[in-house]
Amino acid sequence: MTDELVDEYDVVVVGGGAAGLNGALVLARSRRSVVVVDAGAPRNAPATGVHGLLAREGMPPGELLERGRAEVRSYGGSVVDGEVVGADRDGDGFTVGLADGRTVRARRLLVTTGLVDELPDVPGLRERWGRDVLHCPYCHGWEVRDQAIGVLACGPMAVHQVLLFRQLSADVTLFAHTQPAPSGEQAEQLAALGVPVVRGEVTGLEVADDRLAGVRLADGTLVQRAAVAVQSRMVARTGFLAGLGLTPVPHPSGMGEHLVADAAGRSAVPGVWLAGNVTDLAAQVGAAAAGGAAAAAQVNHDLVLEDTRRAVAATRGPLGV
User: Fold this and answer.
1) Is 17 helix (H, G, I), strand (E, B) or coil?
2) How many other C-beta atoms can be found within 10 angstroms of the C-beta atom of residue 122?
3) Helices (H), the chain
4) CA dihedral (131, 134, 19, 95) positive or negative
5) Rounded to an integer, what distance in angstroms lies between the CA atom of residue 76 and that of residue 25?
6) How far is the C-alpha of 36 from the C-alpha of 275, rounded, in Å?
7) How far is residue 276's CA from residue 44's CA, in Å, rounded to a whole number?
8) C-alpha R_g of the chain
9) How far is residue 283's CA from residue 238's CA, in Å, rounded to a whole number?
């Protein structure tokens, strides 16, 4: 089910994941006209369940989103299928353009479009992503506990990732791949925890009966592994904001690129708020939803102040008295 798009809303929420839907829920309950425009490409679609979310542990991601959409609609909000391809300033608001040619005006924008995981160019990684190729020990670690886990070094966070997964299994191997082998304190840490380092470029994954069987090296060696952890490069989905001058910048952690927001979710462009992975690359579902709710409260407060200014101006009359 999807709703009809009308000409104007108090708030257009771009992105229908946890952050966007929770933000829209808060706004709808505040009696704001709000629409969520969702392109239907959630980051966690390959996962079998959402984890670490109180009272929703293990729920399939699609079911969580369906419940969220229904809750938004129950308070008068709308959810529309579509891809936003542009946003431009229009007076004191914004005009939002969709890929199919539709446009809609908004007094405020709440951007919750999330991010894209860029994976190393190793055959098989993308196909197994979210199944037995993983990135987050808190999202997927319990499911691979006590199994043979490989960590593919892709950047400066590789040893950090090893330490987290070593908490979940005694059988963890670091594949140096194209990175230098750890040295100094990091090498000492791995040795103390019994984590071997395999040198040599990884050229692919071996799969048997639709299950990961091992990691293949350039010299032909097969190292048996049941799961592989990879630190993706996370890049915020923000191309449609270029017309407003909002472009991603490198995240301080080195994990990828994000849009900068202040503690209230405000972007550098007045009237545009950000929430979820588009600004917080490490946010899990619960944190993204909380960010959406917090930003939505700030958006509503901003609109309340504007509505009040207009009401005061109207009572003063044309001469301001």
Assistant:
1) coil
2) 22
3) 18-29, 61-74, 125-128, 137-140, 158-166, 184-192, 285-316
4) negative
5) 9
6) 14
7) 13
8) 23
9) 17
Compute mean pLDDT per 10 residues along the chain, 321 residues long, and list them. 84 98 98 97 89 92 96 97 96 96 97 95 93 93 96 91 97 96 96 97 95 96 96 94 95 92 96 97 95 98 97 82 58
Q: How many residues are there in the chain?
A: 321
Q: Going edge to edge, which strands form the sheet with 222-224?
A: 202-208, 211-217, 222-224
Residue 305, judged by CB atoms within 10 A of its CB (0-12, 13-18, 19+), counts as: exposed
- The dihedral built from the CA positions of residue 236, 40, 65 and 241, taken in this order, carries a sign that is positive
| Sequence-distant (≥ 6) Cβ neighbours of residue 64 within 8 angstroms | 18, 50, 53, 56, 285
User: What are the residues whose beta carbons fall under 8 Å from the beta carbon of 54, sequence distance 6 or more?
Assistant: 286
CB proximity list for 121: less than 8 A, separation 6 or greater? none
